[in-house]
Amino acid sequence: MSIPDFVKILEVKRYSKNTIDNYVSVVKMAQQYFNQPLNKVDETGLHKYFYHMVHTKKVSYSYQKQIAMGLKLYYKEVFNTNINLEFLFPKRKPEKLPVILSKQDIIRIIEKSNNIKHKSMIALTYSAGLRIGELIDLKISDIDSSRMVIHIKSAKGNKDRIIPLSEKLLIMLRTYYKEYSPKEFMFEGQKGGRYTTSSFGKLLKRAAQKAKINKDITAHTLRHSYATHLLEKGTDIRVIQKLLGHNSIKTTMLYTQVAEPTLLNVKSPFDD
What we know:
Order of helices and strands: HHHHHHHEEEHHHHH
Largest sheet: 3 strands, antiparallel
Oligomer: single chain
CATH topology of the largest domain: hpI Integrase, Chain A
Distance between the termini: 69 Å
Strand content: under 5%
CATH class of the largest domain: Mainly Alpha
Shape: globular
Number of domains: 2
Helix content: 40-55%
């Protein structure tokens, strides 16, 4: 069986498109490294590959885990072989706090974007706290202006959720729609179909550089900033959990560590 067969199996098992894309990318990268069919590669070879990815390529904690999960699933579904990769899962995620932008910084980034399409993509990602895959997969029909909500479908964990639609964003999206006339997806590539995650990452970094913001900014930075700003405005942490689509409240509690203490009605005892 080939990668298209692997994709069909995952589709039947109702994996989300984003997860399927990630696992296919993992398999293709491993195939390029070994330059031979993966059923010819034993566990020892895979262990050496992991060492290469972690110590030479310096992959992140989350990507290391994604590689292990993707390859284990590929061997199981395509070759009907159970390989032991669990011990290669990183044991402890680095306790790094996310980069947070101020609302003023985000407005400057939007203003410095090249066109209404780029402005709308950045504004939507921030105003709804979207993951990059959710932005790319969003369809025109998922924007409900009558109810003023955005319907996020088959997100991480294959779950749907509803997010409030910003009035300012709706005006921006209507202007964008009149100029670009997308057909199915809210944001499409030059030849139609989904916009790519890499293209969005590049346009975001360019806009941040023009805005003279010297931080390591990704699409997830906008999501982190959205959650933190909600918390600082007094939004209940469990409401934020629902808006972000987190399974566990522990994940959402991270934002209590990066919110501005004064905006949470906390001040230093030195000021008393």
